[in-house]
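[Discussion] Sanity-checking designs against the backbone

I'm trying to build intuition for which residues belong where. Below is a structure token string of 405 positions. I'd appreciate it if someone posts a full sequence so I can compare it with mine line by line.
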């Protein structure tokens, strides 16, 4: 990195690969100085399926970001997604030895290690151990136990894990371009850093990012990450359904989804049609608007219903006071706000990243929410290293652990 106050977030998505370059300013804020974005190839459902093709796309996105920001990029914060990503909550417990009562940093490391000692399949590795709450001798509401007197330290964590080789593919893609992955972060957690304010996390909030190949979600309760997940359903599934259902080429289906997509049923006039003009290799035709709406409605309802059921299964839905925040490329489909509100029974906000200085087109576009969240995460880690209040420490050791035998 050319300067130590520069952060780069890299998202390897299904439909696009983008790199956001941001500069930390003296007043503690971030300024977006450049955004590089190219269409994704070699990526399916958020995972690399053609390594060399995906690597070329990442290279092009990085070069684009460098040219627009006038920054030489050598280090990135890498977003990770995929339906193999799983999570659970677990509690760690540490009892101080006889004759010692003051809790120190080592106790925090030990309680974290204790919580991670769970049996996982051999192919999996832990990505994140995110602190939720500390308890000292049963006292809850402890924000920082270091220096407090007590005999027993307990801590609840949200633990995220995934298949090691699939995570390694994304890291290798970066390292082979002579870039250093400063940390790897699940997309949903990064996205939440970009679009949620602190009071919304405290009230309880659901963030849903509907991208090209996946739907990522995270649930905050009492300011802490309580649940997260990834569905292998995204905008490309809608495109595929439109292509098959209306018998048109995929490229035309994608364009139709973007320009005419609407999830609200019953709004089209009887017999109302959409005219598709003649193009090279495609004979124009008319399609019923209500048929398009029906296909779009069913696929997005399916994704949102699955997210709701998973949140209900963990009994978190009743603790969400700030509502649902939807972002990502598919959040721009008309009528989605009302459909989601009907499904979740609470207020829904179609969200993009909170305003920052610099390139306004970045945070005004919900497609860049995750990449912007990655640079916000990086900035928070730099400002708050000792106890990250939900952020992840020891990034180097984590990446090293992902590549262990």
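Best answer:
Here's mine. Compare freely.
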């Amino acid at each position: 990195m050319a300067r130590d106050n520069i952060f780069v977030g890299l998202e390897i998505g299904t439909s696009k690969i983008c790199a956001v370059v941001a500069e930390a300013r003296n007043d503690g804020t971030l300024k977006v100085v450049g955004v590089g974005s190219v269409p994704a190839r070699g990526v399916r459902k958020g995972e690399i399926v053609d390594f060399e093709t995906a690597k070329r796309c990442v290279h092009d996105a990085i070069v684009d970001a460098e040219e627009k920001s006038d920054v030489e990029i050598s280090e990135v914060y890498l977003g990770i997604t995929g339906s193999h990503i799983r999570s659970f909550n677990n509690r760690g417990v540490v009892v101080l030895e006889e004759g010692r009562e003051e809790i120190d940093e080592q106790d925090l490391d030990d309680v974290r290690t204790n919580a991670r000692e769970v049996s996982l399949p051999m192919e999996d590795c832990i990505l994140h151990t995110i602190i939720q709450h500390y308890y000292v001798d049963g006292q809850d509401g402890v924000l920082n136990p270091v220096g407090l007197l007590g005999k027993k330290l307990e801590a609840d964590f949200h633990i995220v894990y995934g298949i090691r080789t699939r995570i390694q593919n994304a890291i290798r893609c970066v390292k082979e371009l002579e870039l250093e992955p400063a940390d790897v972060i699940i997309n949903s957690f990064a996205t939440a850093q970009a679009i949620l304010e602190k009071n919304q996390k405290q009230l309880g909030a659901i963030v849903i990012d509907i991208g090209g190949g996946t739907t990522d979600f995270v649930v905050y309760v009492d300011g802490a990450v309580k649940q997260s997940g990834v569905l292998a359903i995204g905008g490309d599934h809608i495109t595929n359904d439109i292509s098959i259902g209306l018998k048109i080429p995929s490229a035309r289906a994608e364009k139709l989804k973007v320009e005419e997509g609407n999830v609200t049923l019953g709004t089209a006039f009887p017999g109302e049609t959409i005219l598709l003009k003649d193009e090279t290799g495609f004979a124009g035709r008319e399609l019923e608007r209500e048929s398009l709406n029906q296909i779009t409605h069913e696929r997005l309802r399916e994704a949102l219903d699955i997210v709701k059921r998973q949140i209900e299964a963990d009994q978190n839905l009743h603790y969400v006071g700030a509502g649902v925040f939807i972002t990502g490329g598919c959040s721009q489909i008309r009528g989605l706000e009302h459909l989601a509100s009907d499904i979740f029974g609470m207020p829904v906000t179609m969200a993009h990243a909170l305003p920052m200085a610099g390139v306004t087109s970045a945070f005004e576009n919900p497609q860049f929410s995750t990449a912007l969240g990655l640079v916000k995460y990086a900035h928070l880690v730099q400002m708050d290293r000792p106890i990250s209040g939900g952020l992840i420490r020891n990034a180097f050791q984590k990446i090293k652990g992902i590549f262990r035998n």
